[in-house]
Amino acid sequence: MRNLVDVLRLRTIVKEDYETDPNYGEYPEKRSVEKLLKLGVVNLDKPPGPSSHDVSSTVKKILGAEKAGHAGTLEEMGRSRRVRRAAGLPQRRH
Amino acid sequence: MSGVLPVCLNDATKAVEYLHMMSKEYVGVCEMHREFDEKDLRKWVEKLTGVIYQRPPVKSSVKRALRRRMILRFTIEDIAGRRFVFRVVTEPGTYIRKLLHDLGLLVGVGAHMVELRRTRDGFLSEESSSTLLELYAAWYLYSKEGDDRLLRKTVKPVEDALKGFPSIYIKDSAVAAVAHGAPLAAKGVSKIDHPLTKGDAVCIKTLKGECVGFGVLTMDSDEVIHAKSGVVATVERVVMERTLYPKTWG
């Protein structure tokens, strides 16, 4: 399996023309807000400070989602209290 | 560190592991520990573009085995005294802090990263990102005043993050079977991205563009085009609800 997929130069080719039935499913851009929340993604601008995990759990709380998961962790330097104190960084609050 | 962090909601969390498979772009500030030669710095930045070997740092959550990682782009944007601004585009799983540390060793004066911001993750870039405050405001307007305009700009269909992911488009009649985890048969395929090779991960989509799930190709894309029967892809992950499309069996 390739590790990196967005750099491939691809074009879509047709095997067999087929008309989709409007009675089933739904175009993603036509989803209701309820459905968007069930199958949606937030492109979040993570603030510096809290961990990626903390931030995605805040997103979950704001939107009242049951589950939230982030892709690609953006971690802080000096994660532990001891390291942060030694480096003169503010302590993280939970 | 700040910047683009895609957060998947509810059923979209099933796509997280596939969102990891995309390149990331960062902008950051690095500080050299002594005076340095600018030409030397530029030379090493150029040499660190392409395939590099990297051992994950001591403080990391993965096994510290030597990794090969692709640095797609590495440039110096600005230099001021001992500090410089860099921009880097990498394969996932590259430690940027380590890259800059190693650059410092190569230049011979030592260096450490002072700041880092992710400006793009796959197809999501910072221009379309929202802060937690904007998300909160969007939710407030929607839940208290029934205005969904801001929320619709903030919460996007998971398919938006998968634009450009290698895809295979299937007929309505094949959707329910794939949504139940059955392997994808040749006669269920309408369109496919090309060129792809056997073993590649693919997003299985309906002709409306909905993500049904993810699978692995069992043949090359040009073979898929000509296949009359048999399995063309296995299904590894189902994202879509099972009951949206009619069952065509039993």
Would you write up a description of this structure?
The complex is a heterodimer of chains A (94) and B (250). Helices cover 26% and strands 15% of the residues of chain A. With 94 residues, chain A is α+β, with helices and mostly antiparallel strands. The two termini of chain A are 39 Å apart. Chain B is α+β, with helices and mostly antiparallel strands and 250 residues long. Chain B is built from 8 helices and 14 strands. In chain B, strands 1, 2, 3, 4, 5, 6 and 7 form a 7-stranded mixed beta sheet that branches. A 6-stranded mixed beta sheet of chain B has the order 10-14-13-12-9-11. Chain B is globular. β3 (68-70) of chain A pairs antiparallel with β1 (2-9) of chain B.
Main beta sheet of chain A: none
Mean pLDDT of chain B: 94
What's the number of helices of chain B? 8
Structural class of chain A: alpha+beta
* SS class of chain B: alpha+beta
- Give start-end ranges of low-pLDDT stretches of chain A: none
Rg value of chain A: 21 Å
**Helix/strand order of chain A:** EHEHEH
Biggest sheet details of chain B: 7 strands, mixed
Oligomer: heterodimer
**Number of helices in the DSSP assignment of chain A:** 3
Biggest interface, and residues per chain?
A-B, 62 and 87 residues
Number of strands of chain B: 14
Keywords:
heterodimer; A: 94 residues; alpha+beta; 3 helices; 3 strands; 26% helix; B: 250 residues; six-stranded mixed β-sheet; 8 helices; 37% strand
Summary?
The complex is a heterodimer of chains A (94) and B (250). Chain A is an alpha+beta fold and 94 residues long. Chain A has helices spanning 33-38, 52-63, 81-86, and strands spanning 11-14, 40-46, 68-70.
